[in-house]
Amino acid sequence: MDRLHIAFFGPVNSGKSSLINALAGQEVSLVSPIPGTTTDPVRKTIELPELGPCVLIDTAGLDDGSLLGAERERRTRAVIDETDVAVLLSDAMPGLVAELEACDIPMVVYKRGQGIPALIEQIAKAARVEEQQWLTGKLVKAGDCVLLVMPQDSEAPKGRLILPQVQVLRELLDRGCNALCCTPESLQNALKKVTPDLVITDSQVFGPVNSALSPEIPLTSFSVLLAAAKGDIATFVEGSAAIDKLNSNSRVLIAEACTHVPDTEDIGRVKIPALLRKRAGEGLQVEIAAGNDFPEDLTPYDLIIHCGSCVATKTLVRSRTRKALLARVPITNYGIALAKLQGILGRISLP
Ligand SMILES: Nc1nc2c(ncn2[C@@H]2O[C@H](COP(=O)(O)OP(=O)(O)OP(=O)(O)O)[C@@H](O)[C@H]2O)c(=O)[nH]1
Ligand SMILES: [Mg+2]
User: Fold this and answer.
1) Which class is domain 137-225?
2) Ligand 1 contacts CB of residue 41 (under 6 A)
């Protein structure tokens, strides 16, 4: 489930950090009478009454005249992309308000002394609570047997499963399905035991899994399911067509929302660039933007490939998709790009 991201914006010294500390009931951010105390965005994951799981985001003040001011302001503005509700400590910030309005982000103005319960109530009203969506959508019904192919390679976290796998497993149980898990190595054996109604695979092994399956068994991937739930899958499918137009002079941006330290089998840094270069030529340029570093100017790129977004919220993915479309740069994501690169996009079932 996506946590509600609540960001606090205001002039320097307006009490943003004090308010966050009061909301959290702990010292999340440093407070001082010196203007410009908060420099980088500070994020605090917390559970709030009425609002449930949230991320509070403290930002640097917007009217800091210091030398570092412009850089701080850029970082503060970048927070808008991940904001579900903006709390403003002043209603006199026309530039920021216009930007929030353009992004369709609900705003709440906090008046000094109004109290925390009243603020929580305002935020709860402003937050657009979306109905919970199934990741597996119309692809399954109660009683179905679903086979999950989950490679446990060096990139898999030690001793546990990655979030999309956990989420899908839990959902299948909730939906009354029977789930069977295997690795690519144990796939043949699993297929001898059951004929699945659906196979959900890690998209990195789309090709071999597809070859092992008879064509009438529906096939999809964890990242396709996530892409559909978090972003606009039709845009991603459309965007993937740009892969056919890439050549050795093209520039591709790979955007990762999380900040895991890459390893040798890394999908975004190694696997996808290798597949792209094999197709478009060795000269193809690939740039990586990790975490919150999403370039402001997207126009130099011929294609943007976004990660599976297991840790990014819908708001962030939508905001980046909107920016890409505004800059007229095609955007797709790992799952769809991998399916396209492995020549089986048409074979994939979308939720
Ligand atoms: N009287 C009063 N003082 C407050 C209140 N909130 C904050 N302050 C004081 O205002 C000063 C600035 O508070 P901060 O919370 O650090 O303000 P900020 O907006 O985070 O400031 P920067 O990080 O520098 O942009 C501190 O001295 C606080 O003690 C309030 O509600 N009432
Ligand atoms: Mg502060």
Assistant:
1) alpha beta
2) no
